[in-house]
Design a protein that fits this description.
Elements: E1 2-3, H1 14-24, H2 36-56, E2 63-66, H3 69-83, E3 90-94, H4 99-110, E4 114-118, H5 128-134, E5 139-143, E6 153-154, H6 157-166, E7 170-174, H7 186-189, E8 193-197, E9 208-212, H8 238-274, E10 281-283, E11 290-291, E12 295-299, H9 305-314, E13 317-318, H10 334-338, H11 343-346, E14 349-353, H12 360-375
Parallel strand pairs: 1-13, 3-4, 3-5, 5-7, 7-8
Antiparallel strand pairs: 2-9, 6-11, 8-9, 10-12, 12-14
The structure holds pyridoxal-5'-phosphate.
Pyridoxal-5'-phosphate binds near residues 145 and 197.
């Protein structure tokens, strides 16, 4: 079996699981309780917060635990909108955002917020000049994802954040596909809000965090108890919080070797696939920018992407046609539309997403499985 759908989710790391088990068993206390069990759980949550903060260059008070990337995106956008609600406001984002951002934008649009979309070029890069032109005195927030989940294209977030800040506007980035894969310092990229999700970097599912730069105005997301500095109520998911911090730490300890391994595997994969047919097209940033090391979006003219994913699945190879949450929809992905990929090519597209756990043998097996389908 070959798992090559790591942009959808990743395997839970053994270290993360080991670290989680005590809090699922004897260390089951509620961090809000005053007794020993409670204190132990509270300490674990605080240590995890400190660890995550130190890895991304933040302070512990700037890390808010959430149920994952979707909630972090929802909170960032709705939280800023609520705190700045007034007449004639607008929200600036891009056409290739994840639905966690796009559908949240649609929600605040119903409450009177104008949504402005910055387009992308054929490689999925946001044009900073167009982005800048959309921001004005009524903009409450700008949000552009750090790395796209279908193409892997990485944006120049520092540049976009600077444009927003120059006009006094807060900047959020959905970094769900980025955090844990490549070193990141929130101060360097200069974002005010940043979303992350543990299951994309070998942590457990259903846990993530929102980085909120000190001083950023943000309304509470869930009302109830005083957890998460009074802004996101609910008893903490202690085991998952611990697992997330350990998974992130493990990646941090191996960034250099993992990035170069995954880059090498992706290079092998692209080389192998490009030899199958001269018409094969790789999507995402090939020249003008940077692509996530493990995400390979490839269009194979004449083949059905969905059909290919099924054939590969029957051979024990897991890939995807695009975003996992959307792969049941037969419509062409909004991301492929945004890069103006012709419809027939978009329908011939699959995403192969590799991780440090894949091997050269996996890549060879994927290429020969695709070759057999192409030859047929
Ligand atoms: N943002 C991006 C870019 C994603 O790829 C995903 C998941 O695929 C999400 C947000 C949602 O994250 P989660 O699955 O943790 O809710």
């Amino acid at each position: 079996m070959i798992y090559a759908d790591n942009a959808a989710t990743t395997r839970l790391s053994e270290k993360a699981l080991e670290g989680m088990l005590p809090y699922l068993c004897e260390g089951f206390g509620n961090p809000s309780s005053l007794h020993g069990w409670g204190r132990e759980a509270k300490k674990a949550v605080s240590e995890a917060r400190e660890l995550i903060a130190s890895i991304i260059g933040a302070t512990a008070e700037e890390i808010y635990f959430t149920s994952g990337g979707t909630e972090s995106d929802n909170w960032a956008i709705k939280g800023v909108f609520e705190s700045k609600k007034r007449e004639r406001v607008n929200f600036v984002t891009s056409t290739i955002e994840h639905h966690a951002v796009l559908n949240t934008a649609a929600m605040i649009a119903k409450q009177g917020c104008e949504i402005r979309f910055a387009g992308v070029n054929s490689e999925g890069c946001v044009n900073p000049i167009e982005f800048d032109s959309l921001i004005d005195g009524n903009t409450i927030l700008a949000s552009v994802m750090m790395a796209n989940n279908e193409l892997g294209t990485v944006q120049d977030i520092r540049c976009l954040a600077e444009k927003a800040h120059a006009k006094g506007v807060c900047f959020h980035s959905d970094a769900v596909q980025f955090v844990g894969h490549v070193p990141l310092n929130v101060k360097d990229v200069n974002v005010d809000l940043l979303s992350a999700s543990a299951h994309k970097f070998n942590g457990p599912k259903g846990i993530g965090f929102l980085y909120v730069k000190k001083g950023t105005e943000l309304s509470s997301f869930v009302q109830g108890g005083a957890q998460e500095f009074g802004l996101r109520a609910g008893t903490e998911n202690v085991a998952s919080i611990v697992g997330m911090s350990l998974a992130l730490q493990e990646h941090k300890d191996h960034f250099a070797e993992r990035v170069s391994r995954v880059e090498h595997l992706s290079w092998m994969l692209k080389r192998g696939l490009s030899e199958l047919s001269p018409q094969i097209k790789f999507n995402g940033s090939q020249e003008s920018g940077w692509t996530m090391p493990g995400i390979v979006s490839v269009s194979i003219p004449g083949l059905s992407g969905e059909g290919l994913v099924h054939v590969l699945d029957m051979k024990g190879i897991a890939t995807s046609t695009g975003a996992a949450c959307n792969s049941k929809a037969t419509i062409v992905s909004h991301v492929l539309q945004a890069i103006a990929l012709p419809n027939d090519l978009a329908k011939s597209t699959i995403r192969i997403s590799l991780s440090h756990e894949n091997t050269e043998a996996d890549v060879c097996a994927i290429v020969s499985a695709v070759r057999r389908v192409v030859c047929r």
